[in-house]
Amino acid sequence: MASKIRLGICGYGNLGKGAESEITRRPDMELAAIFTRRTPPESVRVRSGVPVVHVDDAAQWADKLDVMLLCGGSATDLPVQGPDMAKRFNTVDSFDTHANIPDYLNAVDAAARAGGHVSIVSVGWDPGLFSLFRLYMGAVIPDGQTTTFWGKGVSQGHSDAIRRIDGVRDAIQYTLPSEAAIDRARRGEGAALSVREKHTRLCYVAVHEGADTARIEREIKDMPNYFAGYDATVHFISPEELRANHSQLPHGGNVIHIGQTGGSNRQAMELSLNLGSNPEFTASVLLTCARAAYRLSAKGETGAKTILDIPPILLAEREPEAVIRELL
User: Fold this and answer.
1) How far apart are CA 108 and CA 292, in angstroms?
2) Beta carbons within 10 angstroms of residue 311's beta carbon
3) Which end of the chain is more exposed for a tag (fewer CB within 10 A), N or C?
């Protein structure tokens, strides 16, 4: 085995840049190369100084990487890249279109098994850490209800989905939770809340000259799995205003579980995240799961897995004995 886990980054947007930065904080990892669709790849300026390779040439790195981090978007990138890369590499990704995860998992699983690799899909903070805690909460207190809130913050997946609309130059989408809905969930009324009651979506969009803004607004509001069913407000602004006022990428959220034991004793569980940088935090989860993918592959396992399938101790940098001694 290599002394360090050799990583590749496929996609050099906000998430890829976050991963590049966070790898330097992991003593057991090193970045080997960054893969891009841009031509020529040398035109991409990276901070780490590693080779920048066109994604079409990724196969040449099959024996030089332990895990490939797939940092593309869920709308159009990962449905293609996930299965394709799983044939050639151990992979980790943050596919976050919740309704499509089962189909995506199956597609990546078939490719990973055919290639003899391990792929961990849909890891970030939701899906990912929040998924894990929803499982823990519901398993520990089965007589109860779990409610999840996102925001206030920038959704990378939703912002990326808007950018894929014809005529859109750039966009940022904020997810805004309802404080009244959060209070109701904490009172045990979460099951009665509709999707529309829990969140609103606020979109700031810069378009190319001559773009049909009415059509773009309709496409945003009617987009399945992203905006349909929500109250969404779309503001069209200049690229300069977007860069000046919407360049930060905070996010966060809450998972609230209210239940009872013994038939009458109220039990409340809550996990809260307040993130200064959504892409850097998501990248940190990807890196942590890359460690597990590396270890599972070393044991001879293959196929696609979710964070729900990963023994927690495989995520820690230190040896199991040290982790058990400190955390138990």
Assistant:
1) 17
2) 10
3) C
Written in H, E and C, the secondary structure of the chain is CCCCEEEEEECCCHHHHHHHHHHCCCCCEEEEEEEECCCCHHHCCCCCCCCEEEHHHHHHHCCCCCEEEECCCCCCCHHHHHHHHHCCCCEEECCCCHHHHHHHHHHHHHHHHHHCCEEECCCCECCEHHHHHHHHHHHHCCCEEEEEEECCEECHHHHHHHHCCCCEEEEEEEEEECHHHHHHHHCCCHHHCCHHHHEEEEEEEEECCCCCHHHHHHHHHCCCCCCCCCEEEEEECCHHHHHHHCCCCCEEEEEEEEEEECCCEEEEEEEEEEECCHHHHHHHHHHHHHHHHHHHHHCCCCEEECHHHCCHHHHCCCCHHHHHHHHC
What are 208-226's pLDDT values in tens digits?
999 999 999 999 999 998 9
- Give me the residue label for tokens 């809550």: 270
Residues 17-42 pLDDT 10s: 999 999 999 999 999 999 999 999 98
**What are residue 300's phi and psi, to 5 degrees?**
90, 10
Mean pLDDT of 75-81: 94
Alpha-carbon separation of residue 306 from 90, 129, 184, 238, 311 (angstroms): 14, 11, 31, 40, 11
Please report the sign of the dihedral spanned by the C-alpha atoms of residue 193, residue 227, residue 92, residue 251: negative
Q: Please state, in angstroms and rounded to a whole number, the distance separating the CA atoms of residues 147 and 130.
A: 11
The answer on pLDDT for 1 being more than 60 is no
For 147-166, letters b (16+ CB in 10 Å) and e give bbbbbbbbbbbbbbbbbebe
Sequence length of the chain is 328
Q: How are strands ordered across the β-sheet holding 144-150?
A: 144-150, 251-261, 265-275
User: What amino acid is encoded at 255 in this protein?
Assistant: V
